[in-house]
User: Fold these one by one.
Assistant:
Number 1:
Amino acid sequence: KMTQQMRDLQLAQARKPPGPSSPNAAKRLYRNLSGKFRVNYTSFDEGSLAGRGEKEKLRKSYLFQSNAALFEAVELQDLDRVQELLKQYSPEELDLNTPNSEGLLPLDIAIMTNNAPIARALLQAGGKESPHFVSLESRSLHLSTLVREAEQRVNELTAQVVNEAPNTDCSEKEKQLKAWEWRYRLYKRMKAGFEHARVPDAPTNVHLSVASSSSVQVTFWEPLSVNSAVVTKYKVEWSCSPTFSPRLGEAVIDKLKNLHFTIRGLVSGTAYYVQVSAYNMKGWGPPQASVPPFAIPSNWREYDGRAPRRRGQAEALDHLLGQVKTVHQHCVCHEPCKNQPQSRKHSVSKSLKHLFHPGSKFLKTLKRGLYLTAIFYKDDNILVTHEDQIPVVEIDDTYSCLLMQDFLWFTKVSCMWDEILWLRQCVTVSQSSCSCILQTRFKMLLAISQMQGLLGIQDLGQVFFEPVKDKQGNILIVTLKEVKTNQTFESVRWVPICKLQTSRKSVSSPEEPTALDTLLISIQDKLAYHQRSSHALSPGLYLGYLKLCSAVDQIRVLVPERLPNILCHVKIRSNPNISREEWEWLQKMASVEEPIPAEPEAENSQNHLFQELQVAIKELMTLVNIPLQEAKDFRLYSQEVLDFGGQVSFLLLLPPSDDVCTAPGQNNPYTPRSGFLTLPLQIFELGEER
């Protein structure tokens, strides 16, 4: 069968143009051809083709050339070209796992020539070994046949070149001879690589951790040995016995981008042993037991049977809101409002035309008072009125000192943009008390309704964590919302932010800018804050630092600028779960008055967590600019683990009791470096909820 394949290959070669005479010539040939085909293909006019059949034929021809170019790049060990082709085409377009006429795949050539970088690139792209190699014997026989047939072809061509007189045919024979000589050397190198290879060593750093009450996760690294062949897959095995008899299950991992595996469907409270082994073309290597040798699926909540803190809270709040609405819906003062629509039915694009209507109630200048402005942005552009002004409406022209309680109330209202009409009705009912606070809040709701009506958009976005003020007594409450690129608007004026900043004619002096001028000057910072506030942490367990400072009317919390919706933090590990055993150890540590010196212990999950915490605490102290010797007075919050969505969890590091919250006038001896800010606690809570 192999001899017949080689004969077919010889006939194909005879019909093909002469092959490359050397590796360098071959490299130039396939690069030039690839470039030529790429340009010609992309320059075709679709309308000029006769039909779908011709286009499909052209496409297949083009992809065939790409497949041939990949084989040649692997054979010539051209890593840059291999990476370029893998990036430019999908595995399907390259026929990455379709054997060539010799029964080989690109990955076979890479691993048998022991080219680890190319082999890893192919493996990450989904490359596989040839299915023809079902055993070591079949691979050895296949390589021996390729070498023998190539040697035979070289001898035949050599005899023809020696015996024939110099002519055109002889020149072609010489080119074929050089190409076959090069291929003969390639096959010999592949055969030698296979014969000298040995099974891989065991994987390194095999670490086992508890992922949940019914799963464990194993992570590992490649074998350290550089003399064995490239590893193409791994096997994870698990059992309830340290001898792995019986074996409960196994999984083969052939996607090597991330070397980890989660074993699911396990029984809580049962110990599971895990081992990992590596595979190359010579077979499976020895297994490596995990560290620790076993893990028991569990969760910290099992320690005292504690239920999740937020279980049922959202449903309870929805039920409570429904009850409140039911109480108010039959009020007499609501009768005139029943005919009003609960939601605006007109399109956004139609309503946005108010931006350009001369009769709109957007303000151009500020007079002493309280105002609301909505910033809608897309990329580097911002939405403006027909007069190139940021949309601003008045809340109260007699209000020159915004109380923090009113501002925080406004931020809570921002969670209910769709309920503004109903909230207005509720506040109207209570106005008989003539409360100044209620009057102000009712005006806030009116301003929100006015902004929503003029823009035709219910959702005004997120409230910036502090209002913009000036010395003239103006106060701006700012909302921010990013407009997605797939949203379509008609007759909307988008202006580049830089153009708006340069074209605005300021009526104030640089020493005393108005609130609008201050807003424009700092608008990039506010947009950056808004974008960072929506970022999420990658899954894992984190160590957070809780630091508060109090003022007369508020408490503020220290957060990093890059993630203002999260406490200052460092990552402990990628596994967010705290097991029952780890939590028991943390409870014991919290109850000990004097610190226990670290001593070498047997490898277990508690000791591993202790080492991880030591590293994380040092990193966190450096981050917030606190001397490491002060950390001895800090403590871990041992009441609970803070869970966020099941994929992110936090352990809290607390300063000494007297230093958790800095009082007004109290000096903080350790000031964090740049890159931090303090948010009002209620604003931080709203941001975390978002």
Note: Residues 168-196 form the longest helix (29 residues).
Number 2:
Amino acid sequence: MANEEDDPIIQEIDVFLARSLLEKLYLFQYPIRPASMTYDDVTHLSAKIKPKQQKVELEMAIDTLNPNYCRSKGEQIALNVDGTCTDETSTYSSKLMDKQTFCSSQAASNVSRYAAAVYKKGELHLTPLHGILQLRPSFTYLDKADAKHREREAVNEGGDSSQDEAEDDVKQITVRFSRPETEQARQRRVQSYEFLQKRQAEEHWVHLQYYGLKDSRSEHERQYLFSQGHGLAENTELIKSPSEYLMMLMPPSVEEENEKPMAPSNVLSMAQLRTLPLADQIKILMKNVKVMPFANLLGLLGSGTDPTAVLRCVQQVALLVQGNWVVKSDVLYPKDTSSPHSGVPAEVLCRGRDFVMWKFTQDRWVVRKEVAAVTKLCPEDVKDFLEHMSVARINKGWEFMLPYDEDFVKKHPDIVQRQQMLWMGIQAKLEKVYNLLKEHLTPKKQEAQSAHPLLVSGEQRVNMAKAKVKQNYGQLEKEFQRQKAEMKSNDSSAKPDAPNIRIKEEPVSVEEPMDTSAHEGLNNGLVNGLHPAQGPMEPVNGHLPGGCIDRVAQELKAFVSSTFKKQFVLTLSELKRLFNLHLASLPPGHTLFSGISDKMLQDMVLDTGCKQILVPFPPQTAASPDELKVYALWEAGDTYDQHRQVLLEIFSKNYRVRRNVIQSQLSQECGEDLNKQEVDRVLKDCCVSYGGMWYLKGTVQS
């Protein structure tokens, strides 16, 4: 109060609000210029604006006669930009930098607090500003100079290059088909910087007419800065109580929220989260965290939250796995969406992820190959499923991310029982969709849901393995003695051959058995890809029975024969890849899971009428040994056998060949003129084209 008495009111001024230029008035902030060269001395040549972006571009003349202007520098800039010739496209027609362009940027995103004021005859007239723009010099003419310089260099360097080009090289064209865009991908693309720049560039410029300070039109427009009517009815906004007027000037929270930078669409602060309903809070938390104990969920929701209400809501968006809550698949993959990796629809992704979740209700460990073999999904999708709820362990598989929550299971047995019933329904659906075997569906340990999982140390594993080996060795030794006694009693002449019997024999070869374990890990009871209870072959003394060997050979021969009748030419690497894909399509326990080595596969290829083509690869090739072994079907039983044999003979002497050489050689060896369709048929069977040359399939070295 004392300060107010010391500062008396000297004058009261009436304030009026002018509306004539509402949403039309902009404030331009020009760069600082030398005192000897003010903006009054500058002529505005042109002006244009993009209204939506509030972007302005002004072209202003420079006073070249001013003593502060450097004429030599202006001539040099004009020469660099336009060169020696002048035409209509020249930036500086006078061969002198006599103008400059200014581009605007927004000085403030929120200008609702700013106004232009005019004081006249004891009255203050306010007009709200629609934008505040800062003008800065534009240097696009430098980009134009660089572009012309590069063009001149290209013309000078490209004069003699055409003489060296005898013929156009054939280039391989890669055709790619775009995947259907998901809603999340579309939102990311719309919010990207590149998309926003493209949208801004698409807006057309609106050309403006500039009027000087002393122009009659400017004088006329300046009159609109004054309020047109001084009646109170025209200025009802100013008839407010002091508290209302202060609230209009300084809103408490709305303005502050507008000034905050916008967060990404997938980011939500805890303060914003707690303003949502409880069900939405839980859904957002589970969707982002994916796996969470119930105690942690309560902690994130804040104190005072009813645990019963949380339990009721969490069951709508999550399932119980090992005492922890895991978000449901349909929450992560809504309807009408698809995989960003493979384009698989959401329904298929949900079934695959449910299978992974169900496996973790049976055991703490899941093998990735098992999931891929059963669900038939791409590796990237399977990896996403596992990363949602587990951690990869070297040489072990994927372990569930969180420890078993025994406290929750003991406190809420009714919830656990209800979740077990839900999992029984999910298991029935999975059994119908994936045709799972009974051994896959029965849990290995019934105590897994009621106690901590058993953890076995490495030393214990080694001791258990040693004990098992000793036990198996004793059984094999007894079997050997029994067979030895039978052979002695049946035929005394077999006695000299008895010492040749061994418990187990392995072929002496430097080659490792081929990795055909496409179904390895479908169940922890699998041994070399076979179910012990359902294995059609039982080893005796380390070897398969004779009948089983015949069945394996028949199956392998059928695969090799059908594959080469389709492909004609294959490298060993490609053949092994196709064989693994064939194994993945077979049911568990098939005869081919007995273990096929590289040598066995190569011998079968030669037995089916194929020959190895010794292609002379270049010395510096980076191909693997399996890629260097090329096999081809020598006789397919059709009219093109002779043509293919001639073609293969050509490639046994040359790594790559031109088409005209192949066509002439075929005509010479076969004694007839082949038309283009026949040559194309033979080349399609055995070769591929790359860079104007022809190669045998699988031998192209990029």
Note: Residues 270-434 form one domain.
Number 3:
Amino acid sequence: TPSLVAFLQQELRAAGRALGPCPESPRAPLAREALRVQEQSEQLARELREVSGNRASLRGRLRDLRQYLHVLREGQRFTSLPAPPGSPPRPRASSEREPILDPSLHRHLDRKINFVAGVIHPWRVSAFERLLWRACRGYLVASFVEMPEPMEDPATGESVTWVIFLISYWGEQIGQKIRKISDCFHCHVYPYPESEASRVDTMSGLHSQIQDLSVVLEETEQYLAQVLDKVVVVLPTWRVQVQKMKAIYLVLNQCSFDVTEKCLIAEVWCPVRDLTQVQDALRQGSYTSGSSVECFVQRVPTSESPPTLIRTNKFTAGFQSIVDAYGVASYQEVNPAPYAIITFPFIFAIMFGDVGHGLLMFLFALWMVLYENSPSLRQASNEIWQTFFEGRYLILLMGAFSIYTGFIYNECFSKATVIFPSAWSVATMANHSSWSSDYLATHPLLTLDPNVTGVFRGPYPFGIDPIWSLATNHLNFLNSFKMKMSVVLGIVHMGFGVVLGAFNHVHFHQRHRLVLELLPELVFLLALFGYLVFLIFYKWVKFSAADSLVAPSILIHFIDMFLFTSNAGNLPLYRGQVPVQMVLVVLALASVPILLLGTPLYVWCRRGTGHPTVRGHTVGGRGSHHRGGLTAGVVPKPVATGDQEPLLEGQEDGNSVNATKEDVESGGHSRDAEHKDFAEVFMHQAIHTIEFCLGCVSNTASYLRLWALSLAHAR
């Protein structure tokens, strides 16, 4: 049946018919219904094959007759007889339509003239003509002319303007060579009557045959259209039914027989919330199939970690797929996807900040959201379009945040907008400096000094002052601003991710990891890069325009911090800065061995005192609760399936059948879990330590792409 459905779909595509969606969701057919569908599909496929074959043969025959008719018509022009006596002589002109032989020479020829006529593909004409000349040494006269109308190429199906050829020759051996060469070039050779009367009779016969075949072909096309109309009506439903049947038998094939080989056993993971639904579906399947044995569900205790199920809807699916692309969270871990709904579009907007560009993106996504139920949008076959459509809510938020950051940058299509009056006064500076006409003529660039009273009247109400778009040092100002902004946001983002790990440690009752892992991670991150954020804000607050020329460099201070030195040319930001920085570096370095050895030593000590241990969990996403190992005994009959509830949840509350309170709280992690080898725990922790320490450095530098791509987008 699947092959028949594929054949019917192929025939519809070949006929240019579009297969519409299934008007309703049919249930999976029973065995007798499946046999009926198979019989009907076989009958339709048989009719389609027969009618399509007849149509193809009729088309081929009609094409040959039309080509033959054109060959005779053009050959008649080549070999026309002389005019009757008394008629005015015809002027002799060099033309392809002139007779190839002068009729007055016929009586001087002792040998009989023979003809080979046919059609050839236009791409092969030049090579065909050259080979004829070389093989026959000029003992022939060949004429070529294009066919008046294009016809279909049976090999490729394309419309081709064929070339008609007429070859006159002397001698039977030359004729054999010409026919062999014509066969090699896949020419269609047709019989060419010798007398003109025979040619006229043949053409009249061809006319009548063409008319009869055209009528038969038209009736065949109408009958084929009727068969295709039947296929269009029934095929959408059949396709859904076949897909459901294949899905059901795919699941049944994964089941195993019991010892009596009379029923099937399936070991599955099932969400706690859906257990009742599964039991109802099995009971309904047993009743529908008419089985004398009712399906049942039995809980199987297991210490294995269940798979992760995170329920999503049309809004959260795109964000969850992005998170899953980096890694699917372990069972019951914190799911970072809800936070990524805000952080991902916002970080994109930092790089794409522009009111105009963001508005275009927002309107495009809003159009997709408003017409998301349109069949033309949902069923588009273009892969790039499907990517955009599936991420329409992601694009919507990216456009909205880009509009916000565009107002922050004060850019609309890369042009500054004057929403509020500028806080800088050129008139005050001009009055204070007494700029004369001669001074202005010799100084094309003028500097506004914020230390002069009245030149700078306070910060701009929202975003960047539009006067910076006219300044020559606009790029220097934005470079400093966006570079520091990227570092601050990046470190805050990383710190938030580290803090999320605390919820995992508390949820899995591994409070020792709060001290041995979370605390060293925070100390390492904040003592180095958190201190860098502190320096940025401290410098902004402490130094003003009056003493900006003596403000020290944060970058040099940060380098000296790791070298345990001080630079006399770079003034300290505050008193006692060098000792504070030395203490922070020592704390950061001391946190590395604690992070590396803390958890393995704790596990080793607990094992020595006889306490059970379980393997730790890393930051990820907390999936929906599952109750492990269910064994369902079912008879081999199709079973209805339930729909998934569109929710995004970190945890499913409440108990259900075959699930205890301990199951839900422990998440399938038994207190009697298998002890992990100390070397394996140490290796896992070593990899985590190296990854975290190197990641803090590389990710901080990587966040500078926010500055770089924001600058590139503005340029």
Note: The CA atoms of residues 289 and 637 lie 6 Å apart.
Number 4:
Amino acid sequence: MTTVRQRRVGKGTEAAEDQPSEERNVKPDGKVPSGGKLWNLLSVTLGGIIAISLGLLTSVYVATLHENDLWFSNIKEVEREISFRTECGLYYSYYKQMIQAASIQQGLHGLVYDNKTESVRTINILERMNVYQEVFLSILYRILPIQQYLDPVYFYIYTLFGLQAVYVIALYVTSWLLSGTWLSGLLAACWYITNRIDTTRVEFTIPLRENWALPFFAVQIAAITYLLRTHLQPVQERLTLMAVFIATFLFSLTWQFNQFMMLIQALALFILDCFNMLPTAKVMWLYIIQISALLLVCVLQFFNSMILGSLLISFNASVLIARTIQKNLKKGGLLNRLGKLILHVLLVLCCTLLINKFIKKILNLESDEHIFKFLKAKFGFGATRDFDANLYLCEEAFGLLPLNTFSRLSDTLLLYVYIFVLFLMTVAALIVAFRNLSDSDQVQCMEETEECTVTLKPDAAYNLIHTVLFGCLALSTMRMKYLWTSHMCVFASFGLCSTEVWKLTLKCIHLYTSQRTHVIKYSIPIITLLYISYKFWPGIMDELAELREFYDPDTVDLMNWIKSNTPSTAVFAGSMQLLAGVKLCTGRTLTNHPHYEDKNLRERTKQIYQIYAKRSPEDVYRILRAFGTDYVILEDSICYERRHSRGCRLRDLLDIANGHIMDGLGENEPDLKPSLYPRFCEEIKKNLPSYTIHFTRVFQNKTFHVYKLAKHK
């Protein structure tokens, strides 16, 4: 098991504040005073410099934490590779494979015709996995004159840490665009850094797909926020649409869960469009961009069927069809429009399900069925004995968001501010939505219209629904909290620096004046920044001063033994998390791996995991040999697992799936029966003749037991 230990000493623009303020700086002839132009230019320049500086500081910060936690610069190459745990190691192995290939063409050929990731099968890695970033980075490393100065692993991790700068700058810019002041962006960035435990995990899961994708997702949100501003010039609109497309494409290319995140985004656009809170033309363009980006990724991934069968493509196509049919959706009185709206929603949902069912039927697609089984069981639509669904249900990362998350977010004041802003904006959104439905002939009211006391700009409306939907996702699934918490920083800082929010608040308590609003929107954020700096700066300094060291001697011994004592063509079976490290450190062939988005692989993994079930040695031997296995690795941490409670241990999931009674005290379902055989991983260690005829132990330490399979004729 990989751990860290205490390190031993001595080892070798500001843009215009809001629309009215822009108008106040304009002369009667329509020209902006030269003094105002100069001030705006200086403010934008200063805001931009602060954004870039904060982005770079964040990159240095997470890189330093990574170095201090592992002493990465001092450990051996095998230890560095072991530190890329589980699926991280699998993804990094393809970067390493491309670097070590004789040529770029040979490296690409090895990925397209890969026979080492899954034994007795040849698969296309570029189709199955989102590893184009590793391909691009390896090619870049080969063609740049940096090999003598920078190891491949450092080029890789520095790129990921560099993307954190892009991430923070995008969050900063989004908040700035929403509020009109770069002070809001500064506060968003500071909250992102001080809430690092809940906003990113890049420093200890570097190659994880989300660490590549989320910076591009943040850029996309910033571009959408700018696109939804009013009075954009046609050239500005076209350039912004191009930026949205590029960011959406890069996000889709780098993460296999892209379609689910963009489906939530499409739902946000759909809700706002139904209530006439966004320009319909821009919403339609965003739907088309999502489909186009995903189809382009589909082509690059050799027509990956999981993308073609995604709900996102079916939903977006259904919305476009429904809008073509229902052209007068936004005309009529309240009851008339509500009736049309309900019909529109039903039409879209029915079309989505029909199109998706048709595509999956044509393509015979079952790659994502485990996700829907998991969701069905998670939200209480019936218990399941499905091994794959239970494997997700029992993982903490796929459980509900822990309550201590809110405690940490409260310490930085982020949660309190977020709830305050969310409440006010939600009330404003409900009022605006009702007004839009009640009077379809009314032109979108502006702040200067005396009749309208509550307004909500399109960019703010989008970010409101975005944060609500992704908040629901995070609350239900802890692993997805990073999509929400980073946007929390943006949304809370925007509200704290927003003229509209404070204007609405002060009007509610009958204290509104423009001067008071102006003072509050700057003083409160500055006080908040001072509080954050005072409370958290010492802790950050202590964190940067703490030195630890990577320590996992058992895994290092295992990898060194495999490299020295087994042929390069040997096939290894074991847990999918460990085998990812085996592939990276030794280059040996695997029977299974952690990239779970394939039905055949899921069935294969369940079969391989019978080594931890109550099965006869003959059954286990037959299963392993069917996948060409030469060696099997057993882990005590799985065989005698205590991390999960009874019913969620891997051996329990296997027993339930096999119809066997679970070990230990506790209830069992009435139809479960005792197994005829003892647990394989325990019994094999007794060296009984029925086991030694098939398996010979060739390596052992405190954590791992490696057995070689006999080759019977």
Note: The first helix runs from residue 19 to 24.
